[in-house]
UniProtKB/TrEMBL annotation:
PANTHER family named among the record's database cross-references: PHOSPHOGLUCOMUTASE 2B-RELATED, PHOSPHOMANNOMUTASE 45A
Name this protein carries in UniProt: Phosphoglucomutase
Residues of the Alpha-D-phosphohexomutase alpha/beta/alpha domain: 41-175, 205-304, 316-434
Family, per entry: Belongs to the phosphohexose mutase family.
Keyword DNA damage part of the UniProt annotation: no
Metabolic or biological pathway, per its Swiss-Prot or TrEMBL entry: Lipid metabolism; Glycolipid metabolism; diglucosyl-diacylglycerol biosynthesis
Catalytic activity: alpha-D-glucose 1-phosphate = alpha-D-glucose 6-phosphate
Cofactor: Mg(2+)
Source taxonomy: Bacteria, Bacillati, Bacillota, Bacilli, Bacillales
Top EC class for this record: isomerase
Domain Alpha-D-phosphohexomutase C-terminal: from-to ranges: 494-544
């Protein structure tokens, strides 16, 4: 794209939104180029970007263009309705209504939640209302200056690659995002093309959440503190815990109300310990035994528990996933012999060991919960396997498949039940985790990221991944390389030169399989301008695993920083 030509097209548009026009005048040349040099793309989390003017920004015009493409996508599938939800971010409600106005102008009915709702409820609502697609306006746990447009298919799952490509093609056919037709909301209501969704869907969803419970033989008086981190989870998580009989739940009041600035945290991300600061302070005063934090759109959840020294420890995503998997498989006697656990390629191998103990298969997918949702749908249709649990290292878990995306409401309830189960047996979650390590080995993981913004950053990220792809590594961190998995060429290349096909969608990802159940993987983020490198090691001793991880991270980091 000629960014200056695109900039002039916006400047010459007489009816452009006044606030966006004012913002254009405040940007320097580098900022203008970044705002106009490309169009926002759909990655693992849909369309997501910074708010502001430009083709590479989230604004009413880029949202309208995406909505137009979605409406055409629905009509091409002979559908006639969508569901729209939104979170607490800046302009989320505006973008939700604009999506409905575009859809209605195309003859597609929109069911719009009348106030904030979490992402998993949107996934549920698509299926519950029999709609043909869904949208949630959210940027998950990104900083306040971001927002996004996540699209869901009729199954309630995020669009997998083949479907996403069809929609992207339709979006790209919209020649001018500044001239997309819309219809007034009141007019659409009169025509029956806009309906507001409220408590009926909430109640149906909450009833389904209660269905995941596995045991009442637990200590329901366990002291719990919950924080929604200024997002959408407050009513649903607290209600779910109350209905399950948890009598000792308190809220971090300062973080209970929606706030687009997320003013009490540096980042509203439960993956980061700082997000638990206020919960920990309250926990120290009250002696809370479990802290629960959800991200703004309530698809991710983090758990923290006190250690032997009384200080709280935040469990990482792999640890929480391993504990949940072990608890579910040990307690759910109704699961059939063909049960399957689904995880991503950058999630700990500990889950595979736990699943094997209980006779469950493990299936790996690419990063992105849409791939897990896609497999659930396939297995339901074929009967080949029964979904038992799905998770990814980035704090996303799915207990039951009435939702087809990660679900922090389900996971919060299951996390509380699991902790209460272990409390009754005399263990904290940390002590239960230690028992799993002793049984299966000390699996320890890590992740490094390199933030590189703009066109130059995107190009450098590609060069770094290619440099690893093209280097024939024999060892990494002192461990032998057993195989290289190139998901762009769909090849697994073993150390002896033999090859086999990887039966997953193509993606610019390279993973190195090392001895002793260890590995590392390079992947450009689908939602942020970052290169991520994931690591996993295993030994029979914690200290040895920590040393292995440190050596591996140091060597790989040195290699990627050496790329120009």
């Amino acid at each position: 794209m000629d960014w200056k030509k695109e900039l002039n097209r916006w400047k010459e548009e007489e009816n452009i939104d006044g606030s966006l026009k004012e913002q254009l005048e405040l940007l320097d040349e580098a900022e203008l180029e970044d705002a106009f040099y490309k169009e926002l793309e759909f990655g693992t989390g849909g369309m997501r970007g910074k708010l502001g003017p430009g083709t590479n920004r989230m604004n009413v015009y880029t949202v309208r263009k995406a909505a137009k493409g979605l409406a055409e996508y629905v009509k091409n599938k002979k559908g006639d309705s969508i569901v729209i939800a939104y979170d607490s971010r800046y302009l989320s409600e505006t973008f939700a209504v604009e999506t409905a106005r575009v859809a209605g102008a195309e003859g597609v009915k929109a069911y719009v939640f009348s106030s904030l709702r979490p992402t998993p409820e949107l996934s549920f609502a698509v299926r519950h209302l029999g709609a043909d697609a869904g949208v949630v306006i959210t940027a998950s746990h990104n900083p306040p200056e971001y927002n996004g447009f996540k699209v869901y298919n009729e199954d309630g799952g995020q669009l997998p690659p083949a479907e996403a490509e069809k929609m992207i093609t339709l979006v790209q056919k919209v020649e001018n995002e500044l001239e997309v037709d819309t219809e007034e909301a009141g007019t659409l209501e009169e025509k029956g093309l806009l309906a507001w969704v409220d408590t009926d869907v909430d109640e149906a969803y909450l009833e389904a959440v209660q269905g995941i419970r596995l045991s009442d033989d637990i200590d329901k008086d366990m002291s719990i503190i919950f924080t929604p981190l200024h997002g959408t989870a407050h009513p649903l998580v607290t209600d779910s815990l109350k209905r399950a009989g948890f009598t000792n739940v308190s809220l971090v009041e300062a973080q209970a109300e929606p706030d687009p600035e997320f003013s009490t945290v540096a980042s509203p991300n439960p993956e980061e310990t700082q997000a638990f600061t206020l919960a920990m302070e309250k926990g120290q005063k009250t002696g809370a035994e479990l802290l629960i934090a959800t991200d703004p759109d309530a698809d991710r959840v983090g758990l923290a528990v006190p250690g032997e020294d009384g200080e709280y420890r935040v469990l990482n995503g792999n640890q929480t996933g391993a504990l949940m998997l072990d608890y579910i498989l040990s307690q759910n006697e109704e699961l059939p012999d063909n049960k399957i656990m689904i995880k991503t390629i950058v999630t700990s191998e500990m889950g595979r060991a736990i699943a094997s103990k209980y006779g469950a298969r493990t299936l790996d997918t690419l990063t992105g919960f849409k791939f897990i949702g896609e497999k659930i749908r396939e297995f339901e249709a074929s009967g080949e396997a029964t979904f038992a649990f799905g998770y990814e290292e980035s704090y996303g878990y799915l207990v039951s498949s009435f939702v087809r995306d990660k679900d922090a409401v389900q996971a919060s309830l299951m996390g509380a039940e699991m902790a209460a189960h272990w409390k009754k047996k005399g263990y904290t979650l940390l002590e239960a985790l230690e028992e799993l390590y002793k049984e299966h080995g000390y699996y320890i993981e890590g992740m490094d990221s390199l933030k590189l913004e703009g066109r130059a950053g995107t190009e450098k990220i590609a060069r770094i991944v290619d440099s690893f792809r093209e280097t024939e590594l024999k060892k990494a961190g002192g461990l032998e390389v057993l195989a290289t998995e190139d998901y762009q060429s769909s090849e697994r290349i073993f150390a002896d030169g033999t090859k086999e096909t990887i039966h997953l969608p193509k993606s610019n990802v390279v993973k190195f399989i090392l001895e002793e159940d260890s590995w590392f993987c390079l992947r450009p983020s689908g939602t942020e301008p970052k290169l991520k490198c994931y690591y996993g090691v295993k030994s029979r001793d914690r200290e040895e695993s920590e040393e292995l991880l440190e050596a591996l991270r140091a060597e790989v980091s040195e290699k990627w920083h050496a790329v120009n």
